[in-house]
Amino acid sequence: MMSIQAFAHVTVENQDYATKSKNVTWWADDASAELRYMSGSHSEADFAQATPAGNGRASIEITENGNYTFFAKSGEAVTCDVVPITTIDNISPDITVTDLVVHEDGTMDVYYSASDYFSSCETRYLAGSAGASSWDQAASMTGGVIKSLKTGVYTLFAKDGAGNVGTYLLTTESNAEKGSSSQTTESKWSKEYENIYSSAELEISSNVKPRSSIIISKCDSETGNQIIGAKLQLKNVNTGKVVEEWTSSDCDRVFYDIDMDAKYVLTELFAPDGYHKAEAIEFYPKHLENATLVMYDKPITRITKAPDNPTPTDPAPTQEIEKLPQTGGFDSSAKMLSFGFMLLLFGMGGFFLINRKIKNER
Predict the structure, then answer these.
(1) What is the CATH number of the domain that holds 275?
(2) Residue 98 near residue 27, CB atoms below 8 Å
(3) Which CATH number do you get for residue 75?
(4) N or C: which end of the chain has fewer CB within 10 A?
(5) Model's pTM, two decimal places?
(6) Within 13 A of 74's CA, how many CA atoms are on the CB side?
């Protein structure tokens, strides 16, 4: 019976951020292994009901979120891996007009928010009635407000990270003085005018405090890239209420229904490995540029001290120093020789003295 060696090689492209589809590739070390897949969470026993995908290595395009099971069979041995896919986004973002403030000249400040479950949104607007295909012709709108908009018909756009475009048709009619309410007619349209959500006469009071959305990013202070794994908290200082605690990913975090006049504080509870924890940031949403707040983490610099002598060298050869004869003293043999020489001198001296005395007596 053949076995499958080291199967579980399942890779998903763009799994960490929203896209309209995901490319999934899986393989087995056995190039002849039969590969199959099916939606849902299954076991090896469900191999026969799965959809064939080829041998050795296979790749398919997934267009709906959910769990998927990927199989490999070599001989009689079957193994599988279950992979959850959660960031496929085919839904257009919603746009909500939260307030209209009327000026004395009849122009209006239009407060809006754009919401998408998976990612932050880019927003634009265009005079007249238009569909999602007119996105490129529209002008950018940022900060949750369009200033001094004249009476007329406008299309508001929102585009999410997956490329879906949502539209909002706004008709403003007002001859009222500053501070009065404004009549609007709205129709929410999804991509290319499909699926009309609502059409109603609305009365929006200019006395309502504007509420909108903000975007929070967690980035590396040196590279500017998104940081994954930081534990963050957003708190409304005015009310003392914690809006949310979350762990940063490689996508911006979008918060809706934010009180633009309130004071908030963004706190990093835990920094990811390799980074210093950032100081808390207090801010007012209405003062944010482009409704975006970025908190930066500084990477921890680890310094490895180099050795004083980085290039090992062989120790200098030991020099054998030859011992020279002593010149300031006598060793034992020299002492013996000297003593014998002195005895000889005394003996010879005595001989000459005795010999001389004999001659004198004669």
Answers:
(1) 2.60.40.10
(2) no
(3) 2.60.40
(4) C
(5) 0.48
(6) 18
Phi and psi at 46, nearest 5°, equal -95, 10
- Number of separate domains in the chain: 3
Is residue 67 a contact partner of residue 84, using CB atoms and an 8 Å limit?
yes
Of 175, 208, 241, the last residue of a domain is: 208
Give phi and psi for 168, each to the nearest 5. -145, 120
Residues 352, 349: Cα–Cα separation, whole Å: 5
For residues 103 and 140, the answer to whether their CB atoms sit within 8 Å is: no
Q: Which residue is associated with the tokens 């005018």?
A: 193
The domain boundary residue, chosen from 279, 297, 315:
297
Residue 331 lies in a domain: no
Q: Quick one: three-class SS letters along 184-240? A: EEEEEECHHHCCCCCEEEEEECCCCCCEEEEEEEEEECCCCCECCCCEEEEEECCCC
Output the tens digit of pLDDT for each of the chain's 362 residues.
455 666 768 999 988 888 999 999 999 988 899 999 999 999 999 999 999 999 999 999 999 999 999 999 988 899 999 999 988 998 888 888 877 777 777 788 888 888 887 778 889 999 999 999 999 999 988 778 888 888 888 999 999 989 999 998 887 764 444 444 443 433 333 333 222 222 333 333 334 444 577 889 899 998 888 888 899 999 999 999 998 888 887 667 878 778 888 999 999 998 988 899 999 999 999 888 878 899 999 998 766 555 566 555 555 444 444 444 444 444 445 455 555 656 665 556 555 555 555 555 55
Q: Are residues 255 and 293 in the same domain?
A: yes
Question: What whole-number distance in Å separates Cα of residue 195 and Cα of residue 9?
Answer: 40
- Please indicate, yes or no, whether residues 117 and 199 belong to a single structural domain of this protein: yes
- The answer to whether residue 3 is domain-embedded is no
3-state secondary structure of 135: helix
For residue 335, is it within any domain? no
